GMP synthase [glutamine-hydrolyzing] (Aquipuribacter hungaricus), 326 residues
Amino acid sequence: TWTIGNVITDQVEAIRAQVGDARAVCGLSGGVDSSVAAALVQRAIGDRLTCVLVDHGLLREGEVEQVEQDFVAATGVDLVVVDAADRFLAALAGVSDPETKRKVIGREFIRVFEEAAARVVADSAEQGEPVEFLVQGTLYPDVVESGGGSGTATIKSHHNVGGLPDDLEFGLVEPLRTLFKDEVRRVGLELGVPEEIVWRQPFPGPGLGIRIVGEVTADRLEILRRADAIAREELTAAGLDREVWQCPVVLLADVRSVGVQGDGRTYGHPVVLRPVSSEDAMTADWTRLPYDVLATISTRITNEVREVNRVVLDVTSKPPGTIEWE
Ligand code: XMP
């Protein structure tokens, strides 16, 4: 019979059979899929799995800590966090075009991950236990969409890691390949993955980098991170997390408007709230959030984030608008 318990037992056996005595490495994003995949593989092979979290400095408030502390405490995974915020900021300097931002962030992400993975491989080779596998949180809908093939991945070892071939071939471990999202969540809960991660709303890979309209700078990220944290806190407090598919908070960094805050006139930035309801992100409608929740978010952001003097609400469906602003 099909139960979540049986899915876990079967997958744990399959992972052990595939990996044998070798080691595996897994990139964690803080999202549901990579977290549950990592938790399953760690259940199967324990410390022979090493997870790598690339902190690109574009995550929301508390997200790295959530993985570093709560996820590790709950699952026992061996985690390496790479703080690459400065490197991403440097690469993003002067970039305002959305697609260029995506390209730059994607390119740096792969480089940083590959360097970190190569270090894990080098360490393990020294100890005589090679890393031969890469864990990925591929779900059933991804398998169908991409035509079904599973196989290998190549990681470039770069030149800062001595004694490794230039390219390393990995076998892919994809323990979620037969599962839909709701099943992945149930597996995650059963494995003790924290609820905040299991029920996390979708968040784009390029992170806050595509929620600053204009150039991405450290100061702007800090402003957006604080505004976003307030919006998320109030939506959670109002019990709206499951009703809202996601709620991007967008900083219009190149726009300024006049306001009056505290003792005087200000010339600050607007943030946009973009709450949407959706089934699959292909189409979406703007969520009719209760006025009092909107009011609380607006008051708190303009009180607590000095640089922001207006909060505006995006009331566009998708299409014609996309969910993100970039
Ligand atoms: P749009 O803005 O196209 O977004 O309506 C649809 C869904 O995709 C997410 N999104 C991204 N996810 N990399 C990602 O991993 C991206 O570059 C990206 N752009 C948009 C968005 O958050 C929404 O869930």
